[in-house]
Amino acid sequence: MSIDLSQFFEVFFEESFEGLDAMEAELLNLVPGEEDLETINTIFRAAHSIKGGSGTFGFNSVSDFTHVLETLLDQIREGKRELTAEHVNLLLKAVDCLRALLSALQAEQDPNLEDAIALRIKFEEILGVNQSGANKVAAEEQPAQPEFNTYQIDFKPHHHLFKTGNEPLYMISELAELGDLETLAFHNELPDITDLSADDCFLSWRFFLNTVKDESAIREIFEWVEDDADISITLCGGLFAEQQQATIEEPAVENIESSPEVAEVAEVVAVNPSKKAATAKVTTPAAAESTSIRVGIDKVDSLINMVGELVITQAMLSQIGEQEITETTIASLQEGLAQLAHNTRDLQESVMRIRMLPISFVFSRFPRLVRDISQKLNKQVELKLLGEQTELDKTVMEKISDPMVHLVRNSLDHGLETVEQRIAAGKDPVGKVTLNAFHQGGNIVIEIMDDGQGLNTEKIKKKAIANGLVTEADELDADEINELIFMPGFSTADEVSDISGRGVGMDVVRRNIQSLNGSVEVSSAAGVGSTFTIRLPLTLAILDGQLVRVAKHTYIIPLISIVESLQIDISKVSRVGKDLDVLRLRDEYIPILRLYTIFNHQGAIETLDKTLLVVVESDNQKIGLLVDDLLSQQQVVIKSLEANYQKVDGVSGATILGDGRVSLIVDISGLIKLSGLRKPGSQELIIESKANLEAS
To answer: What is the pLDDT of residue 226?
Structure first.
């Protein structure tokens, strides 16, 4: 019976990416001259596993590249070579290269081998091997360069080869270690499917091997199968090596003349890496989202227990349903339904826990990021990670990573001072960036803190005035000025940086966080540092919401957005413009939005003093939503409106209520945008209303 290895690909990719993460983390812990043997062994084992797995599945571009870095690691762990900073940097680049190769293969694309070839040459230089695979030491001792030859090897196994316990794949891997290998597979002897036997070998191969080894080294690989295969080894000369070198220096597509047999080639199984680089000019695929979650056995056990309780409750209710209806059975039915509700809630919580992962999965990418950027900026930076075991929904975690990267880049580039600036200011020359995560109510809070120079409020205000966002007459406190960095296109950077620009793209950061029903705010003190605080729901699947009635329709407002609900005092309302009412609430002026107007409903209550106002906040801007009535508060399961219907402005999703009706979930940020309160001139109307109310 043949085995379809492709069914194991996804597991291989997941384990390989985990191995690369482990390699990166351990490499960042290495200190040249003080390396720990166990750390080196951990890195070596991860590389070895990736090499072995990729070789098994025929991903030769990965196994060939991993071989050279594995050799370097092996020499270091055996004490034959001392670890240097150059080695660490090169190994980290190799991790990035392997990640790109694996991502391409996972996306079923041909990997771009240019970076792999360049890195492989550097590894070979360190190992004392030149680009063609010859030993540099031998080259220095002997004036003549080692002679390279190309061998054509025809390998045609007898049909019974598999029954002898031999595997051609292992022989191909050994051949690849002798030099540069091109492999062609032939399937011209494959029988009809009805006559195909999984125990018989019907394939044959032709190899072109460019090597400094002699024929005896090649025959040694096939010595175990000499009686079970037809083997032919022919010396072709050194042309292949010359072509390979020419390909590295000047990429070009080559046409290889082939015999009639080559017309029956099934596929090119492994190609000379340099030739692959010359022809595979493809774009790097986007990183594929993980399609699986590793779940602790305790969570699985809890889920099984909950299902068991649910089955027991269902059996009890079924038994009650078969009994005669009496007061006793009604009481039992009510008790059973209460138990069912309790079991369902527990089951829901258990299922949601399966999606929860520690935020360390996100935090783990930042040590490498901080190391690389601090080296580029010539700054000394210490990264502290707190609350790494704080759990967050997998979907939220995948989408919060990019905004966090942007904020950390800002802290490193423009938040922290240079070593000289910190010393002059009496600070520790080593700057500190801290990532902290913790639960707060039904949300998770993530803080990105630095002890740098803080935001320059004076510069921010001048830029805002120049951009027409505020006027000289506006009295803004420091926090209000700092919030201006989240305005679209706002930046105080004097020049464009390839790392970041304080303020560049901050509106995108906020928008991405808001798409997760979250919020972001900043606090800063000159000379002390800045803190960006992100608040997110624990999950995107369930929402705590307030049900409200507008005309005959029911809407859901996220509880996280609600500040308060109140009855309107008409004496504190002022009309500005054509149709905008503003309520003076304590020391604030709240624009009133009529939901029945925005969503075009008929039959709603229009008199202000007979309605209710739900004050909500988004982007540090408060608005009042006019509703007919407040209903209950409840958890709702969020369904994507865009995936099931289409995108609707002012609506973030939908849910199904207990009576089967569909209810829309209000998007506060979208409503503000839809109402035009963020358009130029809208703030002037509110300021005008403020003056009118104060005058009255």
So the answer is: 85
